[in-house]
Write a structure and sequence with these properties.
The structure is a single chain. By secondary structure, the protein is mostly helical. It has two domains: 1-154, UbiA prenyltransferase (Tetracycline Repressor, domain 2), CATH 1.10.357.140; 157-289, Four Helix Bundle (Hemerythrin (Met), subunit A) (Up-down Bundle), CATH 1.20.120. Helix content is 79%, strand content 0%. It has 14 helices and no strands. It has helices at residues 3-9, 12-28, 35-59, 61-64, 82-103, 106-126, 133-142, 144-153, 158-181, 183-189, 194-197, 202-224, 230-253, 259-288. The protein is flat. It is a multi-pass membrane protein. One of its GO terms (cellular component) is plasma membrane. Belongs to the UbiA prenyltransferase family. Protoheme IX farnesyltransferase subfamily. The chain crosses the membrane at residues 35-59, 80-101, 131-152, 158-182, 227-246, 266-288.
C-alpha cells in the first residue's frame, strides 16, 4: 500500500478543480482575505474533495473493474482494500467538513457537507439509473464557488450565484465530450450516459450546444451588472464563451466518425476555458473592480 495509491484514490486532478473554484469564490467575494480563513478553506476543501474521490471509488469499485480506463485504480487492482479506502475517505470527509465549518463559518461547512452528500449519495448511484445524471451531478460540481463565497462573507451574494451558474453550465459540454470519448467503457460499466442511450451522440451534442450558449450569457452577467469591468473580464468572457460555443457547435454539427475528433476539441476547449475566465474574474475584482 504505497502512498501513491492513496493519492490516486483522492482523484487529485478532479479534486484540484474543486479546490481552485472554491478559492476563486473566496477571492472574488472581495473579502478582507483573512489568512486563517483562507488556510482553513484551502485545507478543508482539499480534504473534502479527496474524500469525495475516495468514497466515489469505494462505491464504484466493482463497476471500475469492467472499464479499461478505471480497472487499474487502487481498488480494482487490489492495491488498497475496500475497508482501508472507506476508512480513509470517511476520515478525510469528516476532517474537511469540520475544518471548513470551524475555520470559516457554519454556512461554508454546511455547503461542503452538501457537496459531499449530493455527489456521493445522489449523483453516484444515478449514473446507473438515468441519463439525467450529468445534469444532476453538475450541482455538486458547481457548489465549491459558493463554499468559498460563504467562507469569505458568511452569506452568498448574487455574484456567487452567477459563479454557480457558470460552473454548472461549463460542466455539461465538458462531461458530454468525455462521455462520447469513453462511451464504450461506460456501456461496459453499466452507466446510463446519454452517449449510451443515444449512440448517435446527438443528445449529448444538443445538450453541449445549449449549455455552451447559456454559459455565454451567464458569463457576461458580472460585467452587465457592474461587478466587473468590460475591459478585462467582460472581454475575456466574450472571447472564451464564443470559442467554447463554437467547439460545441462543431460537436453538434458533425456526425459519424467526425464526432470523435470534434469531441476531443470540445474537451480541450473546456480545459482552457476555466483558467482564463476565472483568472480574469479574480484579477478584475482585485485590480479594477
Amino acid at each position: 500500500m504505497a502512498l501513491r495509491d492513496y493519492w490516486e484514490l483522492t482523484k487529485p486532478r478532479l479534486s484540484l478543480l474543486s479546490v481552485i473554484t472554491a478559492l476563486v469564490g473566496y477571492m472574488a467575494a472581495d473579502s478582507q482575505r483573512d489568512g486563517s480563513v483562507f488556510l482553513s478553506l484551502l485545507i478543508g476543501t482539499s480534504l473534502a474533495a479527496g474524500a469525495a474521490g475516495a468514497l466515489n471509488q469505494w462505491l464504484e469499485r466493482e463497476v471500475d473493474r469492467h472499464m479499461a480506463r478505471t480497472r487499474d485504480r487502487p481498488l480494482p487492482s487490489e492495491a488498497i482494500s475496500p475497508q482501508a479506502a472507506l476508512t480513509f475517505g470517511l476520515a478525510l470527509g469528516i476532517a474537511g467538513v469540520t475544518l471548513v465549518w470551524l475555520g470559516a463559518n457554519p454556512l461554508a461547512g454546511a455547503l461542503t457537507l452538501a457537496t459531499l452528500v449530493s455527489y456521493l449519495l445522489v449523483y453516484t448511484p444515478l449514473k446507473r439509473v438515468t441519463a439525467w445524471n450529468t445534469l444532476i451531478g453538475a450541482v455538486p460540481g458547481a457548489l465549491p464557488p459558493l463554499i468559498g463565497w460563504a467562507a469569505a462573507q458568511g452569506q452568498i451574494a448574487p455574484l456567487g450565484w452567477i459563479l454557480f451558474g457558470i460552473l454548472f453550465c461549463w460542466q455539461i459540454p465538458h462531461f458530454m465530450a468525455i462521455a462520447w470519448l469513453y462511451r464504450e467503457d461506460y456501456a461496459q460499466g453499466g452507466f446510463v450516459m446519454s452517449t449510451v442511450t443515444d449512440p448517435s451522440g446527438q443528445a449529448a451534442a444538443r445538450q453541449s450546444l445549449a449549455h455552451s450558449l447559456i454559459l455565454l450569457g451567464i458569463s457576461l452577467l458580472p460585467s452587465l451588472l457592474g461587478y466587473t469591468s468590460w475591459l478585462l473580464y467582460g472581454l475575456v468572457a466574450l472571447i472564451c464563451g464564443l470559442g467554447y460555443f463554437w467547439t460545441a457547435f462543431r460537436f453538434w454539427r458533425v456526425g459519424g466518425e467526425q464526432r470523435t475528433p470534434a469531441s476531443r476539441k470540445l474537451f480541450l476547449a473546456s480545459i482552457a476555458y476555466l483558467p482564463f475566465l476565472l483568472g480574469a474574474l479574480v484579477i478584475d475584482r482585485w485590480l479594477i473592480g
